[in-house]
Amino acid sequence: MPTGMVIMHWDERVGVEIVGAYPSEVSIQEKTLMQLYSQHEFTGEAGLVSITAGAINLASYYTGPESSVYLILLLTSEEDGDVYEEILAEVSRQIVGNLDSRTLTTLLPPLFQRLSVFPTLTPEQRLCMDYNSEIKRLVLQRLRDEAAISKSEIAIWLKDQYREGFVDVENVLTGMVKGGLAKIASVKGLSSDMVFMGQSLMMLRVPPKQLIKDPVDRHLPEKLKGDYIREVRSFFETYKPSDSDNLRIIDQIMLDPQCYEVLKLLREAMVTRNDLEKLRKKGVDDLDAVLRKFWENKMVAVFQDDKSNEYYCLVSDFTIRKYFPKHQLDTIREQYRSKVQNTSVLIKALALMKEEYYSMEKSRKRAIIADDSI
């Protein structure tokens, strides 16, 4: 697990300048900083370099010559810095956007926490992180609206969108390809590779089905069963999915390590305060703050039995998953009719969709066979 991070800025007049660190006492020797600077300078491009300095490894992400910011992560000797490249690029973008702001110091603790837990994220948290990235959301939206976009056009477009910030286009697209959200392929006759949609994302609140099915079996007293079912029904009678609600849950619950630990427990059963207190062993240090987030997001309700025992119950859960983008067929058909896209590109888009469909079907059938064998 990372032990700290240092933010370095290179100034042509004064040289190395440390603009932030977390924890505040973390420091790196100047000769090591110069070694990192030299390695980045050799390529001259945004990206990651990793070096060993004594008993620690350092993963340094450089934002490029326009902003000249270096985000350096201090790791144990057993850790591989390359694992953090994708999240370092995302965090660096946020740091560059707040470099001259007084809020930088307050941003560092949550950003470091997000860096620290990145290697241990669950598949649903990885999807949440993908959608939580404003840049990836922009690219996904364009891929929904268009059959394909050239890689060079995306680079120009994103840099135009973030003139005051920094965008590592290669890192963004590589992350989307790894996550199955995009595909990159060459098309005969075109000089630039094309970016196509892989799978699309769907997310919304859902009722906690397993808890509703048998609340008593999930540790809720029989007398409170009706109250709980009514609470869930009442919420979903007025619930309207929205992007702002999805993003708020992703940011405050799904990607907050303490909140996510509580969510995992609440998905399994109705629990008491004592049950929740046991999560301190898993890093839930501020339980009151965590429960406040659940309450404010209307995800939890508290019921009391005849003996004044309190039961914390999940009212609305959250799901995020990938699905086959069948809607792209309409986009491809429309672009063919209006002749706004190269026919070869549209044919390639259809071929990739076919490939994706059969791949998803094979995975689905394997999952069914695995479930039947249990």
Folded structure, characterized:
The chain has helices at residues 30-43, 85-97, 104-117, 123-132, 134-145, 151-161, 169-178, 209-213, 225-238, 243-254, 257-266, 273-277, 287-296, 328-338, 343-373, and strands spanning 4-11, 15-22, 47-53, 56-62, 69-76, 148-150, 182-185, 194-197, 200-206, 300-304, 310-314, 317-323. It has 374 residues and is an alpha+beta fold. The protein has three domains: 4-108, Beta-Lactamase; 125-198 and 327-373, Winged helix-like DNA-binding domain superfamily/Winged helix DNA-binding domain (Arc Repressor Mutant, subunit A, Orthogonal Bundle), CATH 1.10.10.10; 202-320, Arc Repressor Mutant, subunit A (Orthogonal Bundle), CATH 1.10.10.10. The chain has a five-stranded antiparallel β-sheet, sandwiched between helices. Strands 6-8-7 form a three-stranded antiparallel β-sheet. A two-stranded antiparallel sheet has the order 9-12. Strand 4 and strand 5 form a beta hairpin. Helix 2 runs antiparallel to helix 3. The radius of gyration is 24 Å and the shape is globular. The chain starts with a strand and ends with a helix. The model has no long low-confidence stretch (mean pLDDT 91).
